[in-house]
From TrEMBL:
<dbReference type="GO" id="GO:0046983">
    <property type="term" value="F:protein dimerization activity"/>
</dbReference>
<keyword id="KW-0472">Membrane</keyword>
<keyword id="KW-1133">Transmembrane helix</keyword>
<keyword id="KW-0902">Two-component regulatory system</keyword>
<feature type="domain" description="Signal transduction histidine kinase subgroup 3 dimerisation and phosphoacceptor">
    <location>
        <begin position="193"/>
        <end position="259"/>
    </location>
</feature>
<feature type="transmembrane region" description="Helical">
    <location>
        <begin position="143"/>
        <end position="160"/>
    </location>
</feature>
<keyword id="KW-0547">Nucleotide-binding</keyword>
<dbReference type="GO" id="GO:0005524">
    <property type="term" value="F:ATP binding"/>
</dbReference>
<keyword id="KW-0597">Phosphoprotein</keyword>
<feature type="transmembrane region" description="Helical">
    <location>
        <begin position="48"/>
        <end position="67"/>
    </location>
</feature>
<dbReference type="InterPro" id="IPR003594">
    <property type="entry name" value="HATPase_dom"/>
</dbReference>
<feature type="transmembrane region" description="Helical">
    <location>
        <begin position="79"/>
        <end position="108"/>
    </location>
</feature>
<keyword id="KW-0808">Transferase</keyword>
<keyword id="KW-0812">Transmembrane</keyword>
<feature type="transmembrane region" description="Helical">
    <location>
        <begin position="20"/>
        <end position="41"/>
    </location>
</feature>
<dbReference type="GO" id="GO:0016020">
    <property type="term" value="C:membrane"/>
</dbReference>
<protein>
    <recommendedName>
        <fullName>histidine kinase</fullName>
        <ecNumber>2.7.13.3</ecNumber>
    </recommendedName>
</protein>
């Protein structure tokens, strides 16, 4: 059976080593108090024997901590603390204040062992009551309010420290849970994105291969009908379609990979873009830093979307891609000359709208529009933290 009260960190940890250390401290402190009493108080004094009995009770409580933590041993430990505090308090009748140390030790031990309010209150009341009775029996009534104040202050400080420790532990647990939740959310987002990209790859292959088959069949029919020039044009069109489909497939496969960080993803996307016959100039500024999985995935998809849009709406035009790192976050900008009749001239397409939603979901923003130099510019900002 386990105790309903968890052990106090650093005080009642499982295992023998912390318990033995506590017993050793109790024995050394008890021996010091006992020997001091023997040096300043006559051995025949009742107060000295009460002091020794109180110290023995506290040592006994520390020994009980070595036993399995059950309700029975916990009640016995509380009884030992109550008895030790009361006997040490009574000893003040003739021990010149030596009983104060065991009383304070009993109260602190009761709080640090995470005992409930009733148990801690019993220890504090026993110590205060014993101290008051001992002071009255010893003809020192002025010690009564001082003793009550000392016990109250000790109890208050010990409880405040315990509450602070519990609050710190709760905050630590909440932080761990929050980090775990964020990690799971990022993993789920990555899996969903990979599933979508896999669907994109399937669509690209299905469309490209279907159209390629149709064009090759047409070229074969034209050859059979005696139109070699038209057949050659159909084959050239099929070759162009195959090249475009291969480039799209490479981009989808690159996005499905898991490179080591955003820089590796960026290099892969730029390489694939150039292999498709398009031009891109990459400029990096600032010192790169690690992004969390959700932002790293978003940054990778933003670069991919920017290059794809430029290739579709301004084919053959060079793209200036700038990646800027700052302590506040990551900024990705793409600028390219507009082709005549480009769809960019009328506003945002579906790709840019999805990019804007992705950035907003992470606390970022997207700015896009035509520049005075008849270029189209898109700037995306992802904060380091939401």
């Amino acid at each position: 059976m386990t105790s309903p009260h968890p052990p106090a960190p650093g005080d009642a940890a499982p295992g023998l080593r912390p318990g033995l250390a506590r017993v050793g401290i109790a024995l050394v402190a008890g021996a010091a108090i006992a020997l001091t009493g023997l040096a300043v108080v006559d051995v025949s004094s009742v107060g000295l024997w009460l002091l020794w009995a109180g110290v023995a009770c506290l040592i006994g409580e520390s020994l009980l901590a070595l036993a399995p933590d059950t309700p029975g041993t916990r009640r016995a430990g509380t009884a030992a603390l109550v008895a030790g505090a009361a006997l040490a308090g009574l000893s003040t009748m003739s021990t010149q204040g030596l009983g104060w140390a065991p009383i304070i030790a009993a109260i602190v031990r009761g709080v640090r062992s995470d005992r409930g309010w009733p148990e801690v209150a019993f220890v504090a009341v026993a110590g205060t009551g014993g101290l008051s009775a001992g002071a009255l029996l010893g003809g020192q009534p002025g010690l009564v309010p001082v003793g009550i104040l000392a016990c109250t202050v000790t109890l208050s400080l010990a409880l405040l420290r315990r509450n602070a420790r519990h609050s710190a532990e709760r905050e630590r647990v909440l932080l761990v849970q929050q980090l775990e939740t964020e990690r799971e959310r990022a993993e789920n987002a990555a899996l969903a994105e990979r599933a979508r990209l896999a669907g994109d790859l399937h669509d690209v292959l299905a469309h490209t291969l279907g159209a390629l088959t149709a064009q090759l069949n047409g070229a074969e029919a034209l050859l059979g009908a005696g139109h070699p020039h038209r057949a050659k044009e159909a084959v050239a069109s099929a070759r162009q379609l195959a090249a475009e489909g291969l480039a799209e497939s490479r981009r989808a496969v690159a996005a499905l990979r898991e490179p080591a960080g955003f820089d590796a993803s960026l290099a892969e996307l730029v390489r694939v873009h150039r292999e498709s016959g398009a031009a891109v100039e990459l400029e990096r500024t600032g010192t790169p830093h690690r992004l969390d999985p959700a932002r790293e995935l978003a940054a990778r998809r933003i670069v991919q979307e920017l290059l794809t849009n430029a290739r579709k709406h301004a084919p053959g035009r060079p793209v200036d891609l700038e990646v800027s790192w700052t302590p506040a976050g990551l900024t990705v900008s793409a600028t390219n000359p507009l082709a005549t009749g480009s769809a960019y001239a009328g506003g945002l397409g579906h790709g840019l709208a999805a990019m804007r939603e992705r950035c907003r979901g992470l606390g970022g923003e997207v700015r896009a529009g035509r520049t005075p130099d008849d270029e189209f510019s898109v700037t995306c900002f992802l904060p380091a933290e939401a």
